[in-house]
Amino acid sequence: MLVDIDDAIIEVHGHAKQGAGFGYSGVRGLNALLATVTTPDAAPVILAQRLRKRIVRVITWRQATGR
Predict the structure, then answer these.
(1) Nearest of 10, 11, 13, 1 to residue 47 by alpha carbon
(2) Could you tell me the pLDDT band of residue 56, with boundaries at 50, 70 and 90?
(3) Domain layout of the chain by residue ranges
(4) Dihedral, CA atoms, 8, 9, 11, 16, nearest 10 degrees?
(5) Which of 19, 51, 53 is nearest to 34 (CA)?
(6) In 3D, which of 36, 28, 17 has the Cα closest to residue 55?
(7) Cα–Cα distance between 39 and 1 in angstroms, integer?
(8) pLDDT of residue 9
(9) Which among 4, 13, 10 is positioned nearest to 55, based on CA atoms?
(10) Dihedral, CA atoms, 17, 18, 21, 26, nearest 10 degrees?
(11) φ and ψ of 20, to 5 deg
(12) DSSP secondary structure string, 4-63?
């Protein structure tokens, strides 16, 4: 079994842009966090999803360890 947690930017259009912001890709949208599970015998299934208002700051290994 493989569990994958990933985020994606869902682009928004029109007047209903509450909570949307510009991300690192330059697109105005909402940040969706998705968790999926896959087994060798079955297709991927979405376990959970959540819309986030802001993009989480990504730090590199070098920044985290100070090396």
Answers:
(1) 1
(2) low
(3) 2-65
(4) 110
(5) 51
(6) 28
(7) 5
(8) 80
(9) 10
(10) 0
(11) -85, 150
(12) EEEEEEEE--SS--TT-EE-TTS-EEEEEEEEEEEETTEEEEEEEEEEESSPPPP--HHH
Write phi, then psi, for 30 (nearest 5 degrees).
-105, 145
Instruction: Give the max Cα distance, the chain.
Output: 46
Is residue 37 a contact partner of residue 44, using CB atoms and an 8 Å limit?
yes
Q: Over the stretch 21-42, which tens digit does the pLDDT of each residue have? A: 776 677 788 878 888 999 999 9
State which amino acid sits at residue 59.
I
For 27-44, b/e burial (b = at least 16 CB within 10 A) is eebbbeeeebeeeeeeee
Which residue reads 């968790």 in tokens? 35
